[in-house]
Design goal:
With about 500 residues, this protein is of the alpha/beta class. It contains 19 helices and 14 strands. It has helices at about 1-35, 65-80, 90-95, 110-115, 140-145, 155-165, 175-185, 195-200, 230-245, 245-255, 270-280, 285-325, 330-345, 345-360, 365-390, 395-405, 410-440, 450-460, 465-495; strands at about 45-50, 50, 55-60, 60-65, 80-85, 105, 120, 125-135, 150-155, 170, 190-195, 205-210, 215-220, 220-225. Strand 9, helix 6 (about 155-165) and strand 10 form a beta-alpha-beta unit. Helix 11 packs across helix 18 (about 450-460), helix 12 packs antiparallel against helix 18 and helix 16 (about 395-405) runs antiparallel to helix 17. The longest helix is centred in the middle third of the chain and has 39 residues, at about 285-325. It is elongated, with a radius of gyration of 27 Å. Bound molecules: glutamine. Glutamine (GLN) binds near residues 52, 106, 108 and 153.
Length: about 500
C-alpha cells in the first residue's frame, strides 16, 4: 500500500503540474493575442513558400529574394510592416482566403482559377514553365512528356498545366525536391518556373533546361477577395517601383546572382559524401536548421504529451465512472463523441482544421496551435489506454476500498489509478513515441520542426541522402532515449512493489 500511495501522490503531483502548464498555456495564448494588437504600424502577414529561388529562399537561416526585397521597398515607402510566413505552397491560397495571412507574395502565377478565389495585384514579373531534363535527352514534345515520368511542384501552375494538357505528373512539395528526385533517377523530366529551374540546374551538373517553354505566365501578389484597401496600396506601390526602375533593378540583380551556393566537384564516392556533408551541415551553418527544428519538435511533443495526459486522465475517469457506477452519463456521451471524432480522422487533417478553421481568424502562435492539436489528438489515445488500465484492476479492489470506508473518489485516486497506471505504462510509453514522431507533420502549418529543417536543407543542397539520414538519426536517438527512460521508470515501480 505504501508504494501505491507513493505512486498516488506522484500522480497528484503530475496532476497539479499539468494543471499549472495548462494555465500557463492559456495565459500565453491570451498574451500573444494581446501583444499583436499593440503594433503601431499596420503589419501584414505574407504567405510564401521559401524554396523558390531567386524569388524567395533561405540564405543563412533567413528568407531572402526578389519578393522579399520588393516587400521591403514597399514597407519602407508606405510605412507598413510585413511578417513573412513560410508555408507549403498548396496551402497559401487557402491561407489568404481564410484570413490566416493578409497576402501571398510567392512567385504566384495569375491563373483564371485562382482569380476566382483571390484578388490579384498588377503583375510585377514575367515567367515561363520550362522542362528540366538530363543533358543528353532529346527535346521533349508534349506527346513525349506524356510517355515519361514528369515531376512538378504540387499545386503550382506547372502542376495544373501538365495535369490539364499533358499527363498525370508526380507531385512534390517543392521544385527542389522534384529536382533531387530526378538527380536520383526517379524522374525523366521536371516542369517548373524558369527562374528556380535555372537555379536548380546550376546546382546539378547532369541537368539542363530544354529550349522551348511550355507556357508564358505572369507573377502577381494576391489578397483576400474584397480587400481593396490593401490591394490599392500594393498596386500603387508596385506602380511607383516600376516607374522609377527599382523593380527592374531588384529583379536584374537577383537574376544575375541566381546560382546555388554549392557546385559539386568531387569525383570519388567518398569525396562526394564529404563534400555533401560540408554543404549540407557546415556551410552557412545549415546544421542550425536541424538544431532549431529539434528544439521545436521537443517543445511541441513534450507539451502535447502533458495536455494529452491531463485530458486522457479526465476522460478515462469519466468513462470508467460511467461504466462502473452508471453516473456521469452526459459527460460520458461527450467523451465518447470526442474519442470517435479524434480517433476517426487523420491527425494531419485535425492539425489543418485547428489551424485554418478553428483558429482561422486569430493570429495565434503556431507552436501553440500544434500543441493544442497534438494534445487533443493524443488525449484520445491516452484516455483509452488509461481506461483499459482501470478496467483491468480487479473490481474486488474497489469493493475493498469502499468497505474500508473510502469514498468512490478516494478509492479511484489512491487504489485504482495507481495500479491502472502501472499496468498501462508500456502502452503509454508507446503513445508518447508515436506522438513524438507524429509531430513531423508540423511543416504543414509552416512550423520549422526537425523534419521541416531537413527539408529546407534538402531544398537548398539537392542532396536527399544526408539530410534525411540525419533527421532519421535524431528521431531515432530521441525515441531510444525516451524508451530507456520509460523502462527505468517501470523498473523502479516494479522494485518498489516488492
Ligand atoms: N509560379 C508557380 C505558381 O504560381 C509556382 C510558384 C511557387 O512555387 N512559389 O504556381
Amino acid at each position: 500500500m505504501s508504494v501505491l500511495s507513493r505512486v498516488a501522490s506522484a500522480v497528484r503531483r503530475i496532476g497539479s503540474c499539468i494543471l499549472g502548464s495548462l494555465a500557463a498555456l492559456a495565459l500565453a495564448v491570451v498574451m500573444t493575442s494581446c501583444s499583436e494588437e499593440k503594433a503601431t504600424q499596420p503589419t501584414y502577414v505574407v504567405a510564401m513558400e521559401a524554396t523558390f529561388p531567386p524569388y524567395e529562399f533561405y540564405k543563412g537561416g533567413e528568407i531572402v529574394g526578389i519578393d522579399v526585397d520588393i516587400l521591403q521597398e514597399i514597407a519602407r515607402r508606405k510605412g507598413v510592416e510585413f511578417k513573412l510566413e513560410d508555408m507549403a505552397f498548396d496551402s497559401i491560397i487557402t491561407a489568404v482566403q481564410t484570413g490566416k495571412v493578409d497576402l501571398v507574395v510567392s512567385g504566384l502565377t495569375v491563373t483564371p482559377d485562382r482569380k476566382r478565389m483571390v484578388d490579384f495585384t498588377r503583375p510585377y514579373s514575367g515567367a515561363r514553365q520550362v522542362i528540366i531534363a538530363p543533358k543528353g535527352a532529346p527535346a521533349y514534345s508534349k506527346d513525349d512528356l506524356a510517355r515519361i515520368r514528369v515531376g512538378v511542384q504540387h499545386g503550382s501552375s506547372g502542376d495544373v498545366y501538365v495535369t490539364e494538357n499533358i499527363c498525370e505528373p508526380e507531385r512534390f512539395t517543392n521544385g527542389a525536391l522534384a529536382v533531387s528526385a530526378m538527380n536520383a533517377g526517379k524522374l525523366d523530366a521536371v516542369v517548373l518556373d524558369n527562374a528556380p529551374a535555372e537555379n536548380h540546374v546550376a546546382g546539378s551538373p547532369e541537368l539542363t533546361i530544354q529550349p522551348t517553354a511550355l507556357v508564358e505566365e505572369e507573377y502577381a501578389m494576391a489578397v483576400r477577395k474584397g480587400n481593396t484597401q490593401l490591394l490599392n496600396m500594393l498596386n500603387a506601390a508596385l506602380n511607383e517601383l516600376e516607374a522609377d526602375g527599382t523593380l527592374r533593378a531588384i529583379i536584374d540583380r537577383h537574376m544575375r546572382e541566381n546560382k546555388p551556393e554549392n557546385a559539386q566537384v568531387a569525383t570519388t564516392a567518398l569525396g562526394r559524401l564529404v563534400d555533401n556533408f560540408k554543404t549540407d551541415f557546415i556551410k552557412n551553418d545549415r546544421w542550425k536548421y536541424l538544431a532549431e527544428g529539434f528544439l521545436v519538435t521537443v517543445e511541441i511533443a513534450a507539451a502535447a504529451a502533458l495536455v494529452g495526459i491531463a485530458l486522457g486522465f479526465l476522460i478515462a475517469v469519466i468513462r470508467s465512472t460511467a461504466d462502473l457506477t452508471g453516473r456521469l452519463k452526459v459527460a460520458d456521451f461527450f467523451c465518447r463523441l470526442y474519442l470517435t471524432v479524434v480517433r476517426g480522422t487523420p491527425v494531419v487533417v485535425q492539425l489543418l482544421i485547428i489551424y485554418f478553421v478553428i483558429f482561422g481568424a486569430v493570429d495565434i502562435n503556431k507552436v501553440l496551435v500544434a500543441i493544442v492539436a497534438f494534445g487533443l489528438n493524443s488525449g484520445a489515445y491516452v484516455a483509452e489506454i488509461i481506461r483499459s488500465g482501470i478496467m483491468s484492476v480487479d473490481r474486488g479492489q474497489i469493493e475493498a476500498g469502499r468497505s474500508l470506508g473510502l469514498g468512490y473518489g478516494t478509492t479511484m485516486r489512491s487504489v485504482v489509478l495507481p495500479q491502472a497506471l502501472k499496468n498501462v505504462l508500456p502502452a503509454l510509453g508507446n503513445e508518447f513515441i508515436v506522438l513524438l514522431k507524429e509531430t513531423s507533420i508540423c511543416g504543414y502549418i509552416a512550423l520549422q520542426d526537425l523534419t521541416k529543417g531537413g527539408d529546407i536543407i534538402r531544398s537548398q543542397t539537392y542532396d536527399a541522402f544526408l539530410p534525411l539520414v540525419a533527421v532519421a538519426l535524431i528521431y531515432l536517438t530521441m525515441v531510444v532515449l525516451l524508451s530507456h527512460l520509460l523502462k527505468k521508470f517501470e523498473l523502479r515501480l516494479k522494485k518498489n512493489e516488492r
